[in-house]
Design a protein that fits this description.
Order of helices and strands: HEEHEH
Helix content: 10-25%
Structural class: alpha+beta
Largest sheet: 3 strands, mixed
Number of helices: 3
Radius of gyration: 17 Å
Strand content: 15-25%
Oligomer: single chain
Shape: globular
Strand order of the largest sheet: 1-2-3
Number of strands: 3
Low-confidence stretches: 106-120
Length: about 120
């Protein structure tokens, strides 16, 4: 079972492109205390350009928030990312327009910016 204190701390780890935390993005598969310390499993898309910074940030946050941990083990797994991995707050952060959090197909609004002097 995931530890709520670890999950709360991991909300300080933000995706550099989206500015949304890794918990609400659905990247944290497991966060728990073990006999040896803390173990966190993070599922990142294959060839994710933010992998290294996210993993470094994760370790730094956990080191800072839980100095009593004897060890911190971060396991990176690869899994394609999709909108269904988002939490409710993650959907809101991306601009979901759905009122039903159980809807398997959330609608995300996107803004289209046009260059000055150009039209479709």
């Amino acid at each position: 079972m995931d530890d709520p204190h670890l999950l709360m701390a991991l909300k300080d780890v933000l995706d550099p492109a989206l500015g949304i935390n890794i918990v609400d993005l659905g990247l944290v598969e497991r966060a728990r205390w073990t006999a040896d310390g803390i173990e966190v499993e993070i599922a990142l898309p294959p060839q994710c350009p933010a992998s290294t910074p996210l993993l470094e940030q994760t370790r730094a946050v956990l080191d800072r928030r839980f100095p009593e941990a004897r060890a911190i083990r971060i396991v990176r797994t690869e899994r394609p990312w999709s909108l269904d991995r988002l939490t409710g707050p993650g959907l809101l952060a991306l601009g979901s327009t759905d009122d039903d959090p159980d809807d398997p197909e959330p609608t995300i609004e996107a803004s289209v910016l046009e260059a000055p002097g150009r039209s479709h």
